[in-house]
Specification:
The chain has a four-stranded antiparallel beta sheet with strand order 2-3-1-4. It has one domain. By secondary structure, the chain is of the alpha+beta class. The relative contact order is 0.33.
C-alpha cells in the first residue's frame, strides 16, 4: 500500500543522481557531517532537510522551515515566524559548506515548496 504525506518547506531542491550518491554519499549524510563539524556555526542554525517524491526516487530539499501539511487545509506562509532574508543566507551558506552549490545554480532563489511524498 502506498502512503502519501504532503510537506511544505522553505528552501531549495538539491538535485542529485546515483553518481552523486556513489561519489559523495546520500545528501542527508553529507549534511549531518557538515553540521556536526560546524559546531555552533550561525550559518547552519535551523538548517534541515526532507526527502519527498515518488515511491522509488525521492527528491532532496534543503530547508530552514518544514512541516507536514494537512491536505485540503489552507497554509499561509505569512503566518510562519521567520526572516526569509536570513533563511536565504543560511541556505546559501549550507550549499557552499556541503559542496552542493555545484548542483544548485546560483540564480536559484530559495522559496516555498509543497511536495507530495509517496512511500
Amino acid at each position: 500500500m502506498i502512503e502519501s504525506t504532503t510537506y511544505v518547506g522553505y528552501g531549495v531542491e538539491v538535485p542529485y543522481t546515483w553518481k552523486d550518491v556513489r561519489e559523495h554519499g546520500f545528501p542527508d549524510h553529507r549534511l549531518m557531517e557538515v553540521t556536526s563539524d560546524a559546531g555552533n556555526n550561525e550559518a547552519l542554525a535551523g538548517i534541515s532537510y526532507f526527502y519527498a517524491g515518488d515511491w522509488n526516487w525521492s527528491r532532496f530539499f534543503l530547508v530552514t522551515f518544514s512541516a507536514v501539511m494537512d491536505t485540503g487545509k489552507p497554509f499561509f506562509p505569512r503566518d510562519v515566524p521567520g526572516d526569509t532574508d536570513r533563511w536565504d543566507r543560511q541556505i546559501r551558506s549550507a550549499l557552499r559548506l556541503t559542496g552542493w552549490d555545484r548542483l544548485v545554480p546560483d540564480n536559484t532563489a530559495p522559496g516555498w515548496f509543497v511536495v507530495l511524498d509517496e512511500s
